Amino acid sequence: MNTTVGQGQASPAIIVDCLQYSKPSRERFLEWQAGRVGCVHVTLAVWETARETLSVIGQWNDLFAENADLVALARTAEEIQAIAASGRTAVVFGFQNTAPLEDDIRLVQVFHDLGVRIVQLTYNTQNSIAAGCWENEDSGLSTHVGRQFVRELNQVGMLIDLSHCSERTCLDTIEASSAPVAVTHANPIEFVGSEVELGRRPKSTEVLNALVARGGVVGLSPYVRMLKNGIHTTEQEFVDMISWSVDKFGAEHVALGTDFYTGYGIEAVKWWRMGRWGRESPFPIDEQAPVVEWPAWFTSPEAFPSMVAAMEKSGFGTTELDLVLGGNWIRLFGEVFDRQTP
Questions:
Q1: pTM reported for the whole predicted model
Q2: pLDDT tens for residues 81-103?
Q3: How far is the C-alpha of 20 from the C-alpha of 70, rounded, in Å?
Q4: DSSP string computed for 59-126
Q5: CATH no. for residue 169?
Q6: Is 276 domain-assigned?
């Protein structure tokens, strides 16, 4: 891995992007390499069943075999570092919902054995485990199902993700979890404001303070629907949000989770928004608009070196860069992935 992450100073940082959901292909992997990205947390499933998710894992296994010069699966923080040091990108498997677990607590261990290391409790809506951010009635983490699944995820060594969860679910889970938890891809509502297009997705200062108090990490995203100025947000304005977050929550708890996705058509967007449970999306889908829009300065992961250079110009030193670019995720992964208990 080329250790010169910016266009100015050299740094040993491993860039970790803690959420991408692009359609996987060699083209995408080459973009990771061009962007000097050492690790990417990828989404295997949102509404998929256990059986459907097994097929996705099988497809990824084929991709690893066909692109072994560019990518490899990582199950531990140590493996992430070794893969990145070899000049490739480490892939960490994750779910953006607990749907693949099908309310069967034994499947947590099964999917852990297959390499899954990050699990988001709910994707926007209510399930038996917890409430999502779209719900008007916020029931939080369920008393029985949710708390048992949190305990199981802790025990096997899976990182709990709260990115699409409701306010109360976040607070309940942070309190219930014996391990630090994460918000892999969301922005602080105090900075971006509640008027952003996806106004229920950003996280409150109360949630983020509770998260960092327990050792968690928040990944900031350039996804335009969560940015103060939407598609018009500049690279410097995004860096300003990183700086603000570091000042507010500490350099040891702020990182990146771009939520970057590409390669999909409108049918994929409909799947993400309503799965099989709806005939129409709770939030309108403009089928004439582009499937995805990104700021002009971040149209692919190849943009990371420019972002890092902008961070350097804004006063980020080597230590802060190392933490925000990937060191915080590596630390958290090590604490959670390696904490399995009998």
A1: 0.94
A2: 999 999 999 999 999 999 999 99
A3: 16
A4: HHHHHHHHTTTTEEE--SHHHHHHHHHTTSEEEEEEESSSGGGTT-THHHHHHHHTTEEEEES-SSS-
A5: 3.20.20.140
A6: yes
